[in-house]
Specification:
This protein is an alpha/beta fold. The protein folds into two domains: 117 residues, Rossmann fold (3-Layer(aba) Sandwich), CATH 3.40.50.2300; 90 residues, Orthogonal Bundle (Arc Repressor Mutant, subunit A). The chain has a five-stranded parallel sheet, with helices on both faces. Helix 4 links the parallel strand 4 and strand 5. It starts with a strand and ends with a strand.
């Protein structure tokens, strides 16, 4: 899972990043919120965590702009603003959840996971002799469970979320590997693993660009 944190408190962001990492949640944070649209255009996120009180822009305006561009990624507002009028504004603009500071880290993780689960594609998908159980993160071929690493699953899930679309290598690296070293060659290795499991021509290669799932 990968989240984007739009928050200008770098100390809080670093603490959040380290804690989320212990829960297998990769995170990017933007101390300069003006970069948010560039990140959303170039990377895929499961949840966006958004503060309302920022250095240059209003969080409410960012939320409104995100939704106006058709970005449906769940947004969790994390802010010190606790008035009901602030909450009403954010939910009207398309927020999915609202948590006030100070907050409990465990509760934050529970809310992130809940939002991510809500946005998941159908939990059980059948394609020819392949069955995909999204919730269990398992692929079955001819009713037999396929031994799949976590990295291979994350790559498959990313392609599945965007099936029919080209998923670019930079997006794959960011979503699957996060801060860990990766390369086009490493991606190719895991694509080969998936091709051994999936039907022929299930994954198209766009040389030097990315991959597309055709299921």
């Amino acid at each position: 899972m990968r989240v984007l944190i739009i928050e200008d408190d770098t100390i809080l962001c670093e603490s959040l990043k380290e804690y989320l990492k212990t829960k297998d949640i990769v995170s990017d944070y933007l101390p300069d919120e003006r970069e948010y649209f560039n990140y959303l255009n170039n990377y895929t996120y499961d949840v966006i965590i958004l503060d309302l009180v920022l250095r240059y822009l209003k969080g409410e305006d960012i939320l409104k702009h995100i939704r106006s561009k058709g970005i449906s990624t769940p947004v969790l507002i994390l802010t010190s603003k606790e008035n009901i009028s602030d909450k009403e504004t954010c939910f009207t603009f398309g927020a999915d959840d609202y948590l006030t500071k100070p907050f409990n880290l465990r509760e934050l993780v529970l809310r992130i996971k809940s939002l991510s689960n809500r946005s998941h594609i159908h939990s059980l998908i059948k394609i020819d002799n392949i069955t995909v159980d999204i919730d269990a993160q398992v692929i079955y071929k001819d009713s037999e469970e396929v031994n799949l690493s976590k990295i291979a699953w994350n790559l498959f899930y990313l392609l599945l979320k965007h099936r029919g679309e080209i998923v670019y290598n930079d997006t794959i690296m960011g979503y699957v590997w996060g801060d860990k070293p990766s390369s086009d060659e490493i991606i190719r290795t895991y694509v080969k693993m998936l091709r051994k499991i999936l039907p022929p021509d299930a994954i198209s290669t766009y040389k030097g660009r990315g991959y597309k799932l055709n299921l």
